[in-house]
Design goal:
This protein is of the alpha/beta class and 278 residues long. Helix content is 34%, strand content 20%. The structure holds adenosine monophosphate.
Length: 278
């Protein structure tokens, strides 16, 4: 596996490898890799000729009081995981943006609710870094996890709207044995908070089970929110799975998604499940 640290070198690699008959898979990450990230690599590896993984903790997507400075890092462990997954290139730039960088990508509508409501500028940072990384890697396929369900929707919208010639592959959310969604940020949790955080997935699964009765969303939300043990529940929403608009009622044949964000001390966790009736 080749390790590339300069954006120019990444782009030179892409120029050398991109041809009409060649596929390049790409997995963008912020590192401290776990089985959730690995599942994205495993989803792409059999489909593409070359697999590129990036690790970059993108300052543009962090707010002023968020965890940019203490985001967990493990470059050696990450490189070992990428090698094992059969990655051809690990792109780990120390800086990503050229001097004079003046562009940002805003996806409207989809970014207003859920995480967008409490993290102004976050999805603009995500869309902007992804657009630049897509350009640098020359990828034909890119994998994103349903763990970040709103992010996946935003990236799909951006790729469609800007006619970026790229297939987005959405991958299922990976959990630990207790149902906790795998996240690099789980490292911050005390044992007690890790136990309490299991109530997030329990609440979401309860919504899945209860979705047929009642179908009234405010009662389902109250049921789910009431099960969560956290320091601060930021949101518990049931939305249309495509538009991310809040729903008043669940309807058979209309895919919905239940999503939660909750805080444990300084740590903010998110989780979500598909909800269907009938
Ligand atoms: P991150 O390093 O947190 O920016 O995540 C990089 C990619 O891995 C994103 O597409 C995430 O949605 C995905 N990812 C993170 N955790 C999981 C998980 N538990 N299951 C599936 N995908 C995940």
């Amino acid at each position: 596996m080749e390790i590339v640290t300069e954006p120019e070198a990444m782009q030179a690699w892409a120029r050398e490898h991109r041809r009409p008959d060649v596929t390049i898979g790409f997995v963008p990450t912020m590192g401290f890799l776990h089985a959730g990230h690995r599942s994205l690599m495993d989803a792409l590896r059999p489909r593409v000729d070359h697999l590129v993984v990036s690790i970059y903790v993108n300052p543009l997507q962090f707010g002023p009081n968020e965890d940019l400075d203490r985001y967990p890092r493990d470059p050696e462990g990450d490189a070992a995981l990428c090698t094992e997954a059969g990655a051809d290139v690990l792109f780990m730039p120390t800086s990503l943006y050229p001097s004079g960088f003046a562009t940002s990508v805003s996806v409207h509508g989809l970014t207003e609710g859920l995480c967008g409501a409490s993290r102004p500028g976050h999805f603009e940072g995500v869309a902007t870094v992804c657009a630049r990384l897509f350009g640098l890697t020359g990828c034909t396929h890119a994998a994103f996890g349903e763990k970040d369900f709103q992010q996946l929707a935003v990236i799909r919208r951006m790729v469609t709207d800007l006619a970026i010639d790229l297939q987005i592959v959405g991958c299922p959310l990976i959990r630990d044995d207790h149902g906790l969604a795998l996240s690099s940020r789980n490292k911050y949790l005390s044992d007690a908070d890790r136990n309490r955080a299991q109530t997030l997935s329990r609440a979401l699964f309860a919504i899945q089970d209860a979705a047929n009765d009642p179908r009234d969303v405010s009662r389902l939300r109250a049921l789910g929110a009431g099960m969560i043990d956290s320091d601060r529940l930021e949101y518990f929403e049931i939305v249309d799975a495509a538009s991310l608009e809040p729903l008043a009622k669940l309807t058979s044949g209309r895919p919905a998604r239940a999503l939660v964000a909750a805080h444990y001390g300084q740590t903010r966790l998110i989780d979500n499940v598909a909800v269907e009736v009938g």
